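User: Hey, quick favor. My workstation is busy. Could you predict this chain's structure for me?
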Amino acid sequence: MRNNQNQKDDLRIAQIIDANLDRAREGLRVLEDWARYGLDRVDIVKKIKDFRQILGSHHLDYYKKARNYTEDKCNGLNHPEQFKRIYTENIISSNSSRIQEALRVLEEFSRNNNYELSKAASLIRYEIYSLEIELLNLTCNKNLNEILIKNNLYLITNEKPDLIVDIENLLIGGVKIIQHRFKETDDSNNLKTAKIIRKLCKEHGAIFIVNDRLDIALASEADGVHLGQNDLDLISARKILGFSKIIGISANNEQDIKQAIQNGCDYLGIGPVFKTNTKKNKKPLGIDHIKKLTKDIKIPWYAIGGIKNENIPKLKSNNIKKVAIVSEIMNHENPKNKAMIILKSLNHEN
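Assistant: No problem, here it is.
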């Protein structure tokens, strides 16, 4: 009787192992396909494929033959939370959890009869914790970059009494990228303002970037930071911010542009194109030179400096479609209306 009971228990355990091997490999395939088609990350695809192959090598015929040993009365049982996975981030997290849970079951139930599978399940489970964070960070960065690609107006703020009111109106008017630039006020106020702008941008599906100050960007949970050539270097900034955030770089010569791209910046601000009061000491590059500097750039870049509504058609005729603007909008008596006019001009085909 004891032998018969042991045999029945073995078959039930084999059935559990079979189900969880399938469950873990299915979840891994979901992550693998997103890394492959969504993120174009060959290194991550290879890693996940290795995990699937390792688990597959332990999927013994004995486990498969036990698949229908007892009827699964919970087959087809769903939970309402499953139908709330409308974002890619939800899919990544839910499938990562599914893999982790399945591997834990494998680790426990195979320990006494297939130690190699138990050990492999344990090692892969710990890898998935880190992989989930990496995939979420890369996905967040991808979503932010898509906003950069789709939007041609990059608004930079200046310090003024009604800044928050203006920003809220600008967001309502369709602005999707806002860089908060501040030079004079104290840091406690800068952080307080940054948090308010961050909240408004999130409500309107816009990107919020902090100029220069990595500490304010981190504390306000901004989407990224914009750095000049005299600010913290990009590689150090990336180590601090991680890969979920975006980093933009100001550049006005071939060497700085090339270096920024090699170091992994997400976008560039190039200028000044024209004479500007914001950067009075900078000599304008001119349209022809801007075109030479940018002819091989594959990442989003924004022309900046002295850009007004009346010179946008000239920029567009020279295939310069993305612009960063400060004074033309922020100093206008009705920033929202001015921004809407410029958006229409930028988005209208010549």
